[in-house]
Each structure stands twice: as structure tokens, then as C-alpha cells.
Amino acid sequence: MDKARVNILVTDDERGLCVGIQEALCREGYTVTAAHDAQTTLRLTQERLFNLIIADIKLPDLSGLDLLKQVKNRSRDTFFILMTAYGTVESAVEAMKEGAYDYLAKPIDMKRLRAVVEKALEFQSLVTENHELRLRLQSRAEPGLLVSECESMRAIVRLADEVARSDVTVLIEGESGTGKEIVARSVHAKSARAERPFISVNCAALQEQLLEAELFGHAKGAFTGAVASRPGRFQMADGGTLFLDEIGDLSPKGQGDLLRVLEDGCFRAVGGTELVRVNVRVIAATNQNLQEAVDAGKFRADLFYRLQIVPIVLPPLRERAEDVPLLIETFLKQFAAKHKRRRKTMAREALQLCQRFPWPGNIRQLRNVVERLVITCPDPVLGVNDLPEFLREHDQSANGFLVRPGMTLAEAEKLLIRQTLTHVSANREEAARVLGISRRALQYKLKEYGLLKAPENPPPAREAA
To answer: What is the pTM of this model?
Structure first.
């Protein structure tokens, strides 16, 4: 804890006591402000945030308990320590019921005061860390990131919701950064296993010689350095969900071990003799084409078919440009709260530029750009000039859409229609004129390519549900 960043406010009509407490806590390294009545305290709490307020319970214009209630209504995270020369058990109990952290009787023992202040701030830090941890865990399965204007993405969300009600194995495929773990966490959160663990494993990061022990655990003395028995990821996920990311990078031996567990539901720890049975739902993910890996002999066909009971293929962000404003608004809200910055919005022109960018790093890249903007841009409205240079340079050099080698005629037509609606005109009658077809023909194409949900008007920046 950086004491210099801790703001403490001392309130007492005894000016000498205020000065004494202020000096004692300043010597400890805290930033301390003094006030001599409740109204000054209320004004100061409106101007800035205080970690802790040390207040007399008997003030000339307002009781310390009433002061506590008013401040807590505006700033629930501010801690209170109340002081009084009229200490009774009843007033102490009342102060604690109203939310005071502790209670000190006058005359104040400065040594005890310093100890109580330190404990209060340590407890406040722990509460804050737990709250931020909950926010981080929640944001990793943030439903707002699955809200979509794109019909193909909506179909994926409906499929994930349906799959969540079962225990089947799921294989999520998609480019890096498309949100595979977000979908996996969403499936877990909506399943009957939601109260049990969600354990994530990056298969690409596991060395082959340690893979078996990491997944299935090991017994004491199983190998050099195994000074105690340790459970594996399957045991840690018992009753819950095991998310195996980058499953395509699993070694041949790891593939065999995994298939055996999926078939039998049991295994032996490395160096162990007892058969361990677990109840785990497996969700796997990969940025590779596993069917091609199977055809090339790099991935076991039997494991592929065992994993792919329900396949979910996530589209890259460049194919769902209409979702970019929704994602930006979600990230702006998330990072403003995380970094304690004022809420920001993005100007229409900047949003449209972001929609035109292909985002090779997908949602992860967009997320990182928005976080940077929240931290570095002081203005409440983010304009084109605030965007990173690579975005502006791409927009200046792009004269049309890119036809990739191997793209079918239907894929090129779908891309042209999508980009016309997104970047040229969202009005379907005008878009049909630009494309040189009738509005009826455009409606047919929209239905054929699953683009019927494309909005009639340019998508505004709005808050994702």
C-alpha cells in the first residue's frame, strides 16, 4: 500500500486534537486533511475521495453518526472511525451498526489510533481487491461481449445457450482473439455447473514432459522435485468445467491421455496407484483447422470426433463490423470503471473508421486499443485524431474491400453487400442503388447471406445490454 496515495480526513471541533492527529498520521506517510465541522467535511467529500474519515461523534452542526450516513450515501467505500469523550457501549454498538469500522474513546491514544488506522486501511485494501477480482471474473464472461447485431453471431449465442443445458463436449473454433474463452465461460455460467470451478488450461504452454502431471496430478516422489502430492487440472475442475485452450497444440501422447479420460471418466495420477474418477465437462478451443490437422495426420481423428460433438465456429471481427460500436461501448464502460476514469464516448466518425478496419487481432486487439484510449485520452469524446496512427493510415490507404485468394464468388458478394451497408449507406434503398440492384434483390441477398439483421440506420454507439 502506497501511504502517500491514502487520503484521510480528520473532523473535530477541538482544533488542537485535529492538529495532533494530523501530524501523527502525516509522520506515518499518509495525506491528511483537517476540518472542524460537518458542513466542511461534506463539502470536502464532494470535491475528492477519502479513504478514511476520523470524526468526532459530537460535532457542533451535525452528529458524527449523521455525518457517517450522509457520506456513506455518496461514497460507500469510505471507512469511518468515530471518536467521543462520551464513550458508552450503546453508542459504540450504534456506530458499528451504521457502518463505522471502529470506535475510539477520548482522550485519544495516538499509538492505538495509528494501529486502528493501519488495520482499517488494510481491510479496505482487501475488500477493494476482492471487489476488483469479482469484476475481472465477471468481465471475462461479460454478456455484453456476446450481444450482437450480426445474425450469424446471434445464432452462435443461441446455440451456446442451448448447449449450456447439457453436458456434451464442445469444440470452439476461431481465429485468435475472437472470444473463444468468453463463449466457454458463458456456457459454464449458464449451465448447472455454474457454482462449481471453471478451470482453464493453455495446452500450447504445457511442456510434453509435464503435461500428464499438470492435467492429472502426481503422487509424492513420482519424479524429482515432487515433494508432495498435487492434484491435476481434472481434479480441480471436478463437478465443473475444464476449458482446454489451443487443443490443436496438444502432443500426440497428450491427445491419447485426454481421449482415454473423455471415454472412461477416470485416470491415475503420475506415480499413483489409485484410480481417480471425476465428473468434468470439457470445452476445447483452437485457432487451427482441426479437420485439416486430422487429414494431415497431426491430430487424432478419434479425439477430434469425440471433442466435436457440438462445434461452434466464431467469425472474425472483420466479418461482423456492425458489432464494433457495441463492443467499443462495452469496453469504454468496462475500462472507465477499472481505471477509475470518467466515462467516455466515441464520435461517430471515429466509430465508422473503426468499423472499416479489418482488426487482424480481432476482439482482443480492439479491446487493447480501447483500453489505451481510456487511459491516455483526457477528453470525454474520442475523435478520429485520438485513434492510433495505424488505424488512420489504414483508412487513408484503403480504397476498397480486399478480395482474398481462394474466396468464392458468394463470399465476395456477401462481403461487398456487408461493407456497402456498413461503410457507404445503411439505408437499404440507397445501398441497392449503389450496388446496381433492386431493393427486392438486396432483401433476397440479405436473407440468403444471413445479413437480414443489418440495421436500417448507421449503428450508434450505445450501451451493450
So the answer is: 0.59
